[in-house]
Amino acid sequence: MNTLAAALLSATAVLAVPATAAEVQVQTQGPVVELSVFEQIEVEPDLATVGTGVTTKAPTAVEALRRNSAEMERLVQMIRALGIAAEDIQTARINLNAQYDYRNNQSPRFTGYQASNQVTVKLREVERVGEVLDAFVSAGATNINGPYFSIENDVEAKATARRRALERGQKQAEDYARIAGYRGVRLVQVAEAIRSSGGSGPESDAIVVTGARVQSAPQPPVAPGVVSTGVAIALTYEMTR
Description:
three-stranded antiparallel sheet; Alpha-Beta Plaits
């Protein structure tokens, strides 16, 4: 079966459209063409997500966790002092592990415990990312992951994507109709795929701070660039004479 034949269904096709309450059927008189169209829009990000935290070591598990909790509390208080809302600060991971020194041809030697606490922070002012990363380190953060840029409010961008997708689908359907000897098309069904909102750009390399707390570290340059969002729609057109 060639491409055109595959795209055209019988002249009296009945289209079944999923619905919440009941199945809706659309009766057509002419052959139909079915298309899947994806339209992507690039926009400036309005949200940056950064992971940060503190890692501490001590001879005992209790002491390692106690020191870590004190350092982490100081870091979280500083994050809130930057004007970041409490709901935008979320604990991501807490670890406590025994540490060993492995030497060649020797049994592992216990050296103490390591505790770590990581949080994920949402920054809704992406232009402040460099400033905030610098503040994290100054407050005692020993590691930073990100930033990861995305778009939270993509309503307008998705509306533009829908319009462009429909325009492109209409043109493609009209091309099929002309090739098949028909004069035009009539839109009989639209279905939009469920997609996660927002998009994310390429992940940045992690920034790892080792040793003692860094003093007067330079503010890192940050370029948000653009991120992508879009819609995928299924379109069905009836060919008309």
